[in-house]
Design goal:
- The complex is a heterodimer of chains A (115) and B (111).
- Chain A has 115 residues and is mostly beta strands.
- Chain A has no helices and eleven strands.
- In chain A, strands 2, 4, 5, 6, 9, 10 and 11 form a seven-stranded mixed β-sheet that branches.
- In chain B, the strands form two sheets. In chain B, strands 2, 4, 5, 9, 10 and 11 form a six-stranded mixed β-sheet that branches. Chain B has a five-stranded antiparallel β-sheet with strand order 1-3-8-7-6, with no helix packed on it.
- In chain B, strand 6 and strand 7 form a beta hairpin.
- The N and C termini of chain B lie far apart (36 Å).
- In chain B, 38% of the residues are buried.
- The mean pLDDT of chain B is 94.
- The chains are: A mainly beta (115), B mainly beta (111).
- Chains A and B meet through strand 5 and strand 10 of A and strand 4, strand 5, strand 9 and strand 10 of B.
Chain lengths: 115, 111
Amino acid sequence: EAGVAQSPRYKIIEKRQSVAFWCNPISGHATLYWYQQILGQGPKLLIQFQNNGVVDDSQLPKDRFSAERLKGVDSTLKIQPAKLEDSAVYLCASSSGTGGNQPQHFGDGTRLSIL
Amino acid sequence: SQQGEEDPQALSIQEGENATMNCSYKTSINNLQWYRQNSGRGLVHLILIRSNEREKHSGRLRVTLDTSKKSSSLLITASRAADTASYFCATRIQGAQKLVFGQGTRLTINP
C-alpha cells in the first residue's frame, strides 16, 4: 500500500510570512494526525482528526495555526504568521483506528526553516 | 514534563552487540509503542505492547513492560549498522485518545 504522502519536503520562509503543508494519508485510514518535531525532541501532537472531525487540538496554537481535513481524506496545516520558534519538522501520520490504539504510519515530514 | 522519558539519551555500540533502551512514564497507560526514526525520515512503528502484556518479540526486537514500575525496555539483539536511528517510546494514557512521545534515544552502531 502507498504510504503517507507529504509536501513540500522543505520550506524556507521569513518570520511573519504564511506557509501551508499538505498531507495525503493511507487510503482508508480514518484518523489523521499532525505532529511538530523540534530538533532533538520527540513529536508533539498538534491536532488529531477522526474522519473530518477534530478529536484533539489542545496543543495547537490556534492564534497562528489552523488545520482542516476536507472530505475526511487529505489535510492541510497552515501557519500564519510564522514565528522563529516554529522552525521544526511537521509530520503527518494516519492510522486505521482511533488515536492511540493502533500503530501510526508517518510521512517523511516537511522541514520548515524560519529566517 | 514528558510522559515518557527514554534512557539513555544516546547509545553507541559495536555491530553485533545488543542494545537496550529504557522508557519510563508517569501515569497509567493503555498501551506503549516503540518507533524508529532514521535521519531525515518519518517514524516507523516497531512494536505495540498492551498494559496487560509483559513481553513481546518481533524478529531481533524484544520489548518488556513493567506496569508496577511504569517502565518499558526495548532490546535489539545482534545489532547491525542499519539499526542506527533514534528510537522513541510513545504511551497511550488511560482515558486519552492520543499518543505521547518521549524525547528518544539516539542509537549509533559502529561497524
